[in-house]
Amino acid sequence: MLLILCPYCQSRRAELEFRNVGAAHISRPSDPQTTTDAQWGEFLYQRDNPKGRIAERWLHIHGCGRYFNAIRDTISDVFVTTYKSGEPPPAMPSEAKP
Ligand SMILES: [Zn+2]
């Protein structure tokens, strides 16, 4: 079972209590009225899909109900760290070479 550490509850809980709500650190255009269709489309739909570590936004839907961010490795599905919304992503040590 995958356990996720909620940075607000400070406890590791089963993945079933959480919902992935997409990429983290995506900024909404400051003035949507002046945004072109292409810029708006990019904001809505264009996301990086890297192999390796990625910043994601999660919701502790069956717990405290708060949003937080997580760094997850897409290869191993390991949560490297979690942190509160509004905090910058933590500096990541370089990944170990095999
Ligand atoms: Zn929580």
The profile of the biggest β sheet is: 4 strands, antiparallel
* The named CATH superfamily of one domain: Folate-binding superfamily
What percent of residues are in strands? Answer: 25-35%
CATH class of one domain: Alpha Beta
Draw up the topology in text:
Elements: E1 3-6, E2 11-14, E3 19-23, H1 37-45, E4 53-59, E5 67-73, E6 79-84
Antiparallel strand pairs: 1-2, 3-4, 4-5, 5-6
The site of zinc ion has 7 residues, from loops.
Written overview of the protein:
- The chain is mainly β.
- It has a domain at 1-9 and 19-26 and 51-87: Folate-binding fold, CATH 3.30.2270.10.
- It is 9% helix and 34% strand.
- The strands form 2 sheets. The protein has a 4-stranded antiparallel β-sheet with strand order 3-4-5-6, with no helix packed on it.
- β5 (67-73) and β6 (79-84) form a beta hairpin.
- The longest helix is centred in the middle third of the chain and has 9 residues, at 37-45.
- It is globular and about 45 Å long.
- It starts with a strand and ends in a 14-residue tail after the last strand.
- The model has no long low-confidence stretch (mean pLDDT 92).
- Bound molecules: zinc ion (ZN).
- Zinc ion binds next to loops.
